[in-house]
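USER:
Try writing one entry.

ASSISTANT:
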Amino acid sequence: MRIERAGYTILSNISEDGMNELKAIERIARVCYKSEGRITEDGESAKKLVKKLIDLGHEAMLEHSSLSILFKCDRGVSHELVRHRLVAFAQESTRYCNYSKDKFGNEITVISPFFYQGQEKKNEFESWKKSCEEAEKQYLYLLAIGSTSQEARSVLPNSLKTEIVMTANYREWRHFFKLRTAKAAHPQMREITIPLLKDLQSKLPIIFDDIEVEQ
C-alpha cells in the first residue's frame, strides 16, 4: 500500500503575469458599455475594470473565462467536490481501474490524513493505516478469486487516492473558494484549497484577491 499527500496541479495555461486573462475579461465586458475605446495596451484599464466588476457584484463577466485544476485527494473529499454543480468533472474510476495491475504497482494508494501526523497522534495514525491495509488485503483477495474491479471496490476505504479534474468559470471558482477555504470546511478540503487559492492569487491578479482565508 502506498501512502501519499494530497495536492493539486493547475492544468490551464496562465499567462506570466495573468494580464492576458484580465484583458480577455475586459474586452468582453466592455461590449456591455460600448467602451472598447478605453482599453489600454498596458493592461491598467483591465485591472481597474475587473476590480470594479467584482466590487459591484457584476460577476457574470467572469463566466467567460475558466480554469481546469487536477486535484489529488481522498474519496471523501472528492464526494464534496462533485457537489459543485456548475463544474465539469473528470474523475479516476474505481469501476475500471484495477489496482492489482502492474501500472498501479499492484497496490492501492491512500491519502494520508495530515491531522494524524506527529508523535502525539501515533496511535490514531497506526489505527488508520491498519484499517487501510486490511481494506487493501480484502480488495486484492476479491480480485484474485474472480471479482471484477467494480465489484471489489466496495471494500475500498474513504482514504483511497483519487484524481479529479474540475473545470469551472472564474465566477464559480470564486464561489468554490469562499465555501471550501472557510473555517467550517473539512480540514482535508482546506489542505488543498487554501494553497491553491494563494497560488492563484499570485498568478491571476484581481480575480481572487478579495477572498480572505479564516485561520
